[in-house]
Amino acid sequence: MTDIVTFGETMLRLSPPRGERLERTSELGVRAGGAESNVAVAAARLGCESTWISKLPDSALGRRIVSELRSHGVRTDVAWDDSEAARCGTYYLEHGGEPRGTNVIYDRTDASVTTATPEELPAGALDDAEVFYTSGITPALSATLAETTETLLRAAQETGATTAFDLNYRGKLWRPPEAGERYESLFPYVDVLVAAERDAATCLGREGDPVEVANGLLRDFDFETVVLTRGENGSVAVRGGEVYEQEVYDAETFDPIGTGDAFVGGFLARRLDGGDVPDALAYGAATASLKRTIDGDLAVLTPEEVEAVVDREAGGISR
C-alpha cells in the first residue's frame, strides 16, 4: 500500500547566485519545486512510501523534474505530453535581503499540467493510497485542473483514502472570492484541511480567535481534522472535540521557500506512522524549521534530524 499520493504541478526553479540580480546574472541554478511534490519529498525523506502524479512535457525539462524527485525516494506516475505545445512551468527566484526582499517571477501559463484530465493520468494511482494530498494552487491553474482536482479528491475518498488539502492561496493566480468559492466546492471531499490563518481570513472570511476559526471550519464543513498555521505564532489543530497548539521551533532562515509544504509533509508522515495529532504537529513544526536552513524548495533531511529537534524542544507541545 502507498502511504501518500500527491497531485499537482512541479516547476523548475531558476535562481541567480545570492546577491546577484536576475537582469545581470550569467548563471542560474536549477531545482525542482512545487507544493505537492515538496510534500511528497518531505514525507519520503521521513520514511513514507510517496507517489507524485502529474503531467509533464516529454522533454529534457520534464525528465529533469522526475529525476530530482526520484532521487529523494518519490515514485513518479506521470502523463507525458509529446504535443508541439508541451511546456514545463518555471519560476525565477531572486534572493534579496532587507529592504529589497526576495522576488519571484512565474512563467507557468499553459504548462502541460494545466490540461491534465483524470483519464490520462496513470490508472490506479489512487487505488492503494492511505492519504491523498493536493493544494489550492492546483485548481487555480486552469478550469481543467479544477475539475480534475475535484474528481481525484472524490475518487480518493471513495477508495477509502484520507484526503488532505492545503488552501495554499496565491494572489498571483486568482482573486480571493474566486478562490474561496472553489475551495468550498472541494470541501465535501476533504477530510483534513490545512490552512494558513491569513488564507482563511482572506478567502473564507474566517477571522478572529484561531481556535474558534478552526472549530468553525470543522463544524461547518464536517472535516475530520483542521490545522491552522499561524506563521511565527505556531499552529492550532482541532479534532474529535480536542484542541492542540504547537509553537514554532526557532531556525536560522537560509531559504524559507517550501516551509509550509515541509510542515504538511512532516505532519502527514507522523500521522501515517501512527502518531497522534499533537505528535504530528510537533513533527510538522520540526520539519518546517529544518527546511528553513536548506536551500531550494525541498526538505532534504533525515528522520533523526527531525526527532532531534522534537526531543530538544519537547516543551513546545501543549494539549
From TrEMBL:
Entry superkingdom: Archaea
Group of enzyme by EC: transferase
Every Carbohydrate kinase PfkB domain range: 1-293
Entry keywords, A to Z: Kinase, Transferase
E.C. code: 2.7.1.178
Entry keyword annotation includes Kinase: yes
SUPFAM superfamilies: Ribokinase-like (SSF53613)
Keyword Transferase found: yes
Gene3D superfamilies listed in its UniProt record: 3.40.1190.20
A single GO molecular function term of this UniProt record: kinase activity
Family, similarity comment: Belongs to the carbohydrate kinase PfkB family.
Name of the molecule in the record: Bifunctional 2-dehydro-3-deoxygluconokinase/2-dehydro-3-deoxygalactonokinase
Protein's organism: Halobellus litoreus
Annotated gene: kdgK1
